[in-house]
Amino acid sequence: MRAMAFSKTGGPEVLHLVDLPTPTPGPDEILLRVAYAGVNYGEIQHRLGDFGEPEGETVTGLEAAGVVAAVGERAPVGERAAADVSGASAASAAASDVSVGARAAADGSVGERAAADGSVGARATADRSVGARAAAGVSVGDRVASYLPDGGGYAEYVVVPAAFAFPLPDALDLRTGGAAALVLTTAYGVLAGAARLAPGDTVLIHAAAGGVGGVAAQLARALGARAVYGTVSTPEKAAYARAAFGYDEVFVRDGFPAAVTAATSGRGVDVVLDPVGGPTRLASLDVLAPFGRVAVYGEAARHPDLHLRVLPLWKNNRTLTGYNIGDLARRAPETLRTHALNALNLAAEGAVRLDITEEHDLTEAAKAHRLLGEGRNRGKTVLRVDASASPSGGAPSGGV
Ligand SMILES: NC(=O)c1ccc[n+]([C@@H]2O[C@H](COP(=O)([O-])OP(=O)(O)OC[C@H]3O[C@@H](n4cnc5c(N)ncnc54)[C@H](OP(=O)(O)O)[C@@H]3O)[C@@H](O)[C@H]2O)c1
Predict the structure, then answer these.
(1) pLDDT-derived band of residue 389, with 50, 70 and 90 as boundaries?
(2) Which helix (H) or strand (E) holds 44?
(3) Residue range 17-21: average pLDDT?
């Protein structure tokens, strides 16, 4: 199969086309024939070596959509039960039960759904039959959007834990699905899980014009936020983000504390979403209203880690919280899946729109990386992996 890989860390030029063996799905895994793959900042960091050195030809790519080409056997029940508590393999154990998401959706309002996540996860873990339904629930030929915890999306085929193969609602095409699985799940998880967004809250989102930022703004409104503000690096991006994602106001990041203070009549905001880090993170703590939360989920500025004093947290009624999808995949895969299904449903209902501004062929991955790595991107960038796939239809066949 064709794939874009790197065997040494470095700039976008280290990405090159390779021919690799098509992988085989193991127990509680599926083989996905990739139609579209999203391009994410995490993949830039992967290529740069932030997550360690590559071992041989390494294929990055954290999200993709396509058609299920093969389904692995189900792990014996005993193995699945053991895997539930064993960290990494819990992802495949927890299983892809659409009805978990459906139960959450049926629980009531969107805000209640978020609050219900814990109990939904607990029910899924406690119910061994969930695993059985899950493995049976994904069939060859199904359209799915997948979060790929081990990468691999920049390839014609990728093996995915069944737990992270999310059925794509009919209203969403494969191109949108390819842009959605990581980004929507992360935005939903940061807001509902890490920041505990409550109806009526005010929210500030850094990197407001990007992939996660753009959908987070819309999800925040869908979850009941009263006002949504953003920060970006340039006035051009601010105008784009306001028009594309419906922010109340978008500020240039330099000097944002004064702008937020003015916009909120001195109160500050209840929630800050911070994927940037460094001085932006420090200043974000200063714009919190009482009991406000700064949710940390990235290091786009690649600034050295902060050493924070704790005293100002209790002196000023502040909370610092974090979100990491990889940790969630290992330790709470049912929660991750519930977040993904809830967010995909909101996108299917039209509450959230993914603004895909760039589409490149798989072989042009370096071009997409250059754009994102230099912070020149807006909205979402995707790679067309299967040249014959139509955005709305499937790949030509589900077979390998
Ligand atoms: N924790 C998790 O589980 C998780 C999961 C997914 C994504 N993330 C994080 O979420 C963030 C957004 O991801 P994304 O894929 O949607 O990317 P993105 O927001 O589309 O692009 C990254 C943005 O970061 C901003 N940025 C700030 N400092 C930068 C710098 N020094 N160089 C380049 N860009 C800089 C730029 O926006 P401005 O021009 O506005 O500065 C840039 O557009 C990333 O930090 C990513 O690592 C975390």
Answers:
(1) confident
(2) helix 41-48
(3) 98
Euclidean distance between CA atoms 367 and 176, whole angstroms:
20
Alpha carbon distance, N-terminus to C-terminus of the chain: 10
For ligand 1, atom 26, the nearest C-alpha belongs to 300
Ligand 1: nearest atom to the Cα of 300: 45
pTM of the prediction? 0.87
298 and 371, same domain (yes or no): no
Return the pLDDT at 393: 52
Contact in structure between 246 and 229 (CB atoms under 8 Å): no
pLDDT in tens, 39-74: 999 999 999 999 999 999 999 999 999 999 999 987
Shortest-distance Cα residue to atom 9 of ligand 1:
298
Ligand 1: residues whose CB is within 6 Å? 40-42, 182-183, 186, 207, 209-213, 232-233, 237, 275-276, 297-298, 300-301, 323-325, 372, 375, 377
| Residue 391 confidence (pLDDT) | 67
Number of domains in the chain: 2
Domain with residue 108: its CATH number is 3.90.180.10
Q: Residue 234 forms beta bridges with which residues?
A: none
Q: What CATH number is attached to the domain comprising 198? A: 3.40.50.720
Distance 65 CA to ligand 1 centre (A): 21
Report, as an integer, the average pLDDT of 379-390.
90
* Same domain membership, residue 55 and residue 17: yes
